[in-house]
């Protein structure tokens, strides 16, 4: 039976190639970009592209797939033109995901650019409302990703993530994707059992665990509270292996898709080795 573990996979050569790359390294789950993540616009999907992706998912036995939106999108933008452009781009991402029958699109909420946290939260909530209004009846959900905390970014803490969802008129159309490296960089010390339980207890109180729909599994090159978004291979950074064993066996998050966004060199060995390690963490905990 497929598990819930996988990695971000490149769509170079076509959407379907992400599924084949995922199968090569042992993914049950893949995360993809829906287009070039460094560009605002892209040609619409052709019907054959969509059909090929869906067929590849079946052939490669990818149990779950979801997307990450462009890094250019800033839903917290304070200026009208910038905010409108971000919302239009996010709308396009949701349209593409819906066409591929993907359940989630993960996005960085963005930066308030010095206007203040409360202003940024209001702008993101406005964006969630506008996007929900543009996509009535869609199954895809927008997932806000927690940030490492540098600069004027919005979404560093569970309280900030909760505030954005609570301010939206249709919070059920959205959710959260938690990144382990970002949590650590933002000051949540997951390394000890006490620290892990304190963080996830706060998550449960502020957000509710049902709001957490997916995870990015990344170790951190930067130390606790650094605010730096520096991903590292599992067990080779400041987090170490223990937090991942706890998370993988935390019943509060059972069934959530979890993907690696760690360095891939050497390919394809790095992802394959990391997935083997993560699966061993599940087995060894279960066997106790």
How does this model look, in words?
This protein is α/β, with parallel strands linked by helices and 288 residues long. The protein has 9 helices and 10 strands. The protein has helices at 15-25, 47-59, 80-99, 117-134, 158-167, 180-185, 193-206, 242-248, 269-287; strands spanning 5-8, 29-33, 64-68, 104-108, 141-145, 174-179, 212-217, 219-220, 231-232, 258-260. The strands form 2 sheets. Strands 1-2-3-4-5-6-7-10 form an 8-stranded parallel β-barrel. Strands 8-9 form a two-stranded antiparallel ribbon. Strand 1 (5-8), helix 1 (15-25) and strand 2 form a beta-alpha-beta unit. The two termini are 21 Å apart. The relative contact order is 0.12.
Distance between the termini: 21 Å
Evaluate the radius of gyration: 18 Å
Q: How does the helix and strand content classify structurally? A: alpha/beta
Strand order of the largest sheet: 1-2-3-4-5-6-7-10
Please give the number of β-strands: 10
CATH class annotation: Alpha Beta
- Average pLDDT score: 96
Overall shape: globular
CATH topology: TIM Barrel
The CATH homology group name: Divalent-metal-dependent TIM barrel enzymes
Major pleated sheet:
8 strands, parallel, barrel
The percent of residues in helical segments reads 40-55%
The topology string of helices and strands comes to EHEHEHEHEHEHHEEEHEH
CATH architecture assignment: Alpha-Beta Barrel
Number of structurally distinct domains: 1
Number of helices: 9
Query: How much of the residues is beta strand, in percent?
Result: 5-15%
Q: Ranges with pLDDT <50 over ≥5 residues?
A: none
